[in-house]
């Protein structure tokens, strides 16, 4: 599992304890003493999970979170909260945060939560990469190939496609072969599954 956990907390003992804990479990972590310092370093290519304290100095956790979202950063955020801040943490969950932990927390609990957050992030990144790949492949299709593919995906047979587009059966077969080749699909079923994952 790649990526790094970024710990944003203005209390040095908590930063040190969490960094040591994650390192002991084979997880890379980097610490930040404030929300401002963390935001100033963005974008961070290695970031796959953020541990963010709710109550900090100039910028509190929810404010940092809002700025992350405003920049389009979708890395999962786990909030650390004191008992009095639970309602705030619940609000952040509604706004899309991954989860929150109330202090004092159990070591296994925060490690497990961070691992789930990283897994979730890596899965969403893989899905996004697949979507971009499909979009790039679609861009290589000619307008005629797009027409043929739409009819293929609707379940039309070669003869029906030929009749609909007023072209020869052999031409349909050539287009079908090119479409499958360009899209990286072995057959029509695989193509349909691919396009299904792309939400089309």
From TrEMBL:
Looking at the keywords, is Phosphoprotein present? yes
What sections of the sequence does the record tag as coiled-coil?
A: none
Q: Where are the transmembrane segments?
A: none
PROSITE patterns per the UniProt record, alphabetical: HTH_LUXR_1 (PS00622), HTH_LUXR_2 (PS50043), RESPONSE_REGULATORY (PS50110)
GO molecular function annotations of the record? DNA binding
Ranges of residues in domain HTH luxR-type:
134-199
Indicate yes or no for the key word Membrane: no
Taxonomically, which superkingdom?
Bacteria
Under the heading Gene3D superfamilies, the entry gives: 3.40.50.2300, Winged helix-like DNA-binding domain superfamily/Winged helix DNA-binding domain
- 4-aspartylphosphate (modified residue): where? 53
Q: Which GO BP terms apply?
A: phosphorelay signal transduction system; regulation of DNA-templated transcription
Q: Where is the Response regulatory domain?
A: 4-118
| Keywords annotated in UniProt | DNA-binding, Phosphoprotein, Transcription, Transcription regulation
Q: Check the record and name the PANTHER family matching this protein.
A: DNA-BINDING TRANSCRIPTIONAL ACTIVATOR DEVR_DOSR (PTHR44688)
Name used for this protein in its record: DNA-binding response regulator
